[in-house]
Known about the structure:
Elements: E1 2-11, H1 20-32, E2 42-49, E3 52-59, H2 65-84, E4 88-101, E5 115-121, E6 124-133, H3 134-138, H4 141-158, E7 163-170, H5 182-188, E8 192-194, E9 200-202, H6 204-222, E10 228-230, E11 235-237, H7 238-244, E12 256-257, H8 265-278, H9 283-288, E13 295-297, E14 313-314, E15 321-325, E16 329-331, E17 346-356, H10 358-379, E18 384-391, H11 392-396, E19 410-416, E20 430-439, H12 441-445, E21 449-450, E22 457-464, H13 465-476, H14 485-491
Parallel strand pairs: 10-15, 14-21
Antiparallel strand pairs: 1-3, 1-4, 2-3, 4-6, 5-6, 7-18, 8-9, 11-13, 12-13, 15-17, 16-17, 17-22, 18-19, 19-20, 20-22
Helix pairs in contact: 1-2, 6-10, 6-13
Zinc ion (ZN) binds at residues 300, 302, 351, 460, 462.
Amino acid sequence: MKFTLDCSLIFTKPLKGIDLKSLIKESAVILERGAPEGKGARIDRVKLKDNRLDLRITSGRYVRPHDAVFRLKNLLSEELGKRYRIGIRGIKAEKYRIEFDVEKEPKEDIALPFAKKIRFDGKRCILELHNLDEEFLGKNYTDRMINLINEKIEKQHYEGKEEHWELIWQSKQKEPVWNKDPSEEMEKRNWIMHRGRGQWIFGPTATKIIKTMEQIVVDELLKPLNVNEVIIPKAVTWDVWKKSGHAKNLYGEIYYLCPPKSRDPRLWEEVTDIYKITGEVPTDLVKERIKEPIGGMCYAQCPPFWPYLAGKTISDEDLPMKIFDRSGTSMRYESGGIHGIERVDEFHRIEFVWIGYPDQVKKLNKEIVEYYRKIFNKILDLEWRMAFVTPWFMAQEGLIGLADVKKEVGTIDFEAYLPYKGPRKESEWLEFQNASNNGDKYPKGFNVKSRGKEQLYSGCTGIGLERWLSAFIAQKGIDPENWPKEFRKRVGKLPKEIRFL
Ligand code: ATP
Ligand code: ZN
Ligand code: MG
């Protein structure tokens, strides 16, 4: 690594008749502090003009110039303040050149905000930044940019493969009752009705089935494990997603949340007038009258729960802590991927979250999988499988090694065979839920502590009710006569189908 920073210190007064040379010589010691001998930062060039001191600071890996310049600033402001009552007004940097080796060669050009130039020579990267202010230098933006370049290259090498997928278990093959598209068939019978983009109304019959499924989750998973119900907000603000990590990558899938600039009717008069005259909502004018997004609609249920625990210490008696939420929908902008009720923009999900010491979390993950096994084999009688998946960013952050044979931290996807999509081997199965051991990600992100020495872990499982319904109808058909006995017993008599004339 090679860093070259051309920067200036701006003083409150011109430095006339002051022996700067010896002061700068003195600073050599502090620019080495913490580095192996001879490997700290160096001042290569000094030029004084009135109240401005231009410097070139260089370094290798240790004491990078953006740190060194603050060490120098502290030293000089102390000495000059004491001796001459001169202070330092600020730091500016005209140019910062950073040369470093990346882990892999990039496949395409990389662009980054703040970067004037990013050039590669094999694995050697030359990054050039211009006109930087004190905040930029002081807040470690440079190190984050270096990390981000490596992250972008890593992503190029993943080539659109969003996750690493590995089968861990598969049920017996089950003879499907039919091979029809469940959404289409339910739509024909008015069980469900499409409403705009990726949103559905569930009529009485479909609702009865979904509610029965929900009850199965309560009776066969949540009650046996003593999980308490909570109500979690569904409008999520940036502070939550910054701590949960979602602020790093969620933007293309969010339904944004924008409050009005004011509730004053005068602000809205033109909008209401136009609507009353034309019968159309003037959305362009609405857009002018709303604030920037303060966040978005619930994407995953657990992040907006964590502020409940943030900064707190949980007593050992309350661990593992187990809660679940089913208090509202999640929303995702799924764009082109929408299909029937299998991929929707507004969906219903139960999420169960557990928090504890690593062993407790691991044990619960295992127990949860066993309860699910019973539900899918004995009650819904599904053909399904489990796969261990590693999202690329987790692998890349080193959160999970792909070769981690223990597979303790990471996600299990539960997938169901959809006969209407074709043969088992070639067709895409439906992920109808997942169960994750999220490691220390959330307790760390939200600063949740325990009395014990070990770092807390957490896990969560998201049960997608639209997906359960799809998987079930896709395999078992629409006629209750063909449904497994255990499910029929629980669902009871279905409401009479609604017919429209
Ligand atoms: P997919 O790969 O199908 O997009 P995902 O990996 O984005 O799913 P997760 O973020 O793991 O899904 O969400 C957990 C669960 O939430 C899923 O297993 C599924 O049951 C449900 N879910 C997620 N997105 C949707 C959607 N668009 N429509 C219906 N259910 C969904
Ligand atoms: Zn979760
Ligand atoms: Mg998705």
